[in-house]
Design a protein that fits this description.
Layout: E1 3-7, H1 12-23, E2 27-31, H2 35-40, H3 47-56, E3 60-63, H4 70-80, E4 84-87, H5 101-122, E5 128-133, E6 146-148, E7 153-155, H6 176-196, E8 200-205, E9 207-209, H7 221-231, E10 235-238, E11 245-250, H8 251-263, E12 269-273, E13 280-282, H9 283-294, E14 300-303, E15 313-314, H10 319-324, H11 334-349
Parallel strand pairs: 1-2, 1-4, 2-3, 4-5, 5-8, 8-12, 9-11, 10-14, 11-15
Antiparallel strand pairs: 6-7, 11-13
Helix pairs in contact: 1-8, 4-5, 5-6, 7-9, 7-11, 9-11
């Protein structure tokens, strides 16, 4: 039986990967210390997800470990002896990072480096997959000429008709401190791949979402929006007329891509992983979609000032992913994803 080590195992992507690989017959070890609750308070608590994994996965072992703890990170990997590592643990909010800069950098940059070096010392042969972010591009995508449509912005430049490719620049742009710490982790994973010839993947996520997301205002766009709708809580739109666009990918499709990469790994590859153009929506369009499902009108207010470094329009070009792994594609439509998130919040309220 193969063994998978997942950091951030109680989070959205981490838990989805745990379940997916357990269903494939892997033994799962999860590392998580519920740091999301420290970052975001009680609303960000993920213990419920940890308990779900412990109850539903037969060969699941939880490790209460902070990835900033270098000594114990260096110890645990040779103890577990994983056949692959999926690294999803992070401080995930670009807004929150400015308030906790040391925690942000130590988690996203130093924590990732701890795991890379621990992996290298154990084996340079096992796949290491890192969950990065589209924030490594900073606000450079905002320099692309846009066209304003009734409910959204879109790219006016034909070069980006399929979205942002992996060749898009990551420097000379405002990232937010979160984006900067994630750039450090992103580049480190690439460097360990190239320098030590290790099979590594960097997944620059768009809006990663799904029913197991513990969405809060500072992180978890669709999950939090759906929660606000059900609770009839006012949702705040920050700038861009509410027409800012995101591509949304269900956590299941992320896990499926990770399965494909681990089965046929490459050295230091970067992928923009998101829903692609077909799974995009603006904030205004998201309001209409959830209201159509729940039957509840959306309550919202508007603040003219946008979030620092926020994208006006962003969606991922999936061409490279599809070319490298032709068995993979998006299976969950945006409507499917909305319905699953809605149903999950309904169950939690019962």
């Amino acid at each position: 039986m193969k063994t998978l080590l997942v950091t951030g195992s109680s989070g959205l992507i981490g838990s989805e990967v745990c379940v997916h690989f357990a269903n494939l017959g892997w033994k799962i070890h999860g590392i998580d210390n519920n740091q999301r609750a420290v970052f975001f308070g009680a609303a960000g608590d993920t213990r419920w997800n940890q308990h779900r994994l412990e109850k539903t996965i037969k060969d699941y072992t939880h490790h209460e470990l902070d990835i900033r703890d270098r000594e114990n990170v260096l110890k645990i990997i040779p103890e577990i002896k994983p056949d692959a590592i999926m690294h999803t643990a992070a401080q995930p909010s670009h807004d929150k990072a400015a308030a906790i800069p040391f925690d942000d950098f130590d988690t996203n940059a130093v924590g990732t480096f701890n795991l890379l070096e621990a992996t290298r010392r154990y084996s340079t042969q096992i796949p290491f997959v890192h969950m990065s972010t589209n924030k490594v591009y900073g606000d450079a995508p905002n320099e692309i000429p846009l066209i304003e449509l009734p409910t959204r912005w879109d790219y006016a430049d034909e070069k980006y008709k399929n979205g942002i490719p992996e060749t898009f620049r990551i420097d000379q742009t405002k990232h937010s401190l979160f984006g900067a710490s994630k750039v450090s982790g992103d580049i480190s994973v690439q460097e360990y791949g190239r320098y030590f010839n290790m099979p590594t993947a960097i997944l620059r996520g768009g809006c990663l979402t799904g029913p197991n997301h513990t969405g809060v205002e500072l992180h978890g766009f669709l999950s939090y929006l759906v929660k606000c709708n059900l609770e009839q809580k006012e949702y705040t739109v920050f700038g861009y007329k509410g027409k800012q666009v995101r591509d949304n990918i269900h956590s299941y499709d992320v896990a499926r891509f990770i399965e494909e990469f681990i089965a046929a790994p490459r050295i230091a590859e970067v992928y923009n992983i998101g829903g692609g153009k077909n799974n995009t929506c603006s904030v205004l369009e998201a309001f209409d979609m959830i209201s159509a499902i729940s039957g509840i009108p959306m309550k919202w207010n508007y603040q003219e000032e946008n979030r620092i470094g926020d994208h006006i329009c962003y969606y991922s070009d999936l061409s490279k992913m599809r070319n490298h792994y032709p068995k993979w594609d998006i299976t969950k439509s945006l409507t499917d994803t909305f319905k699953e998130i809605y149903q999950a919040w309904v169950l939690k309220k019962q």
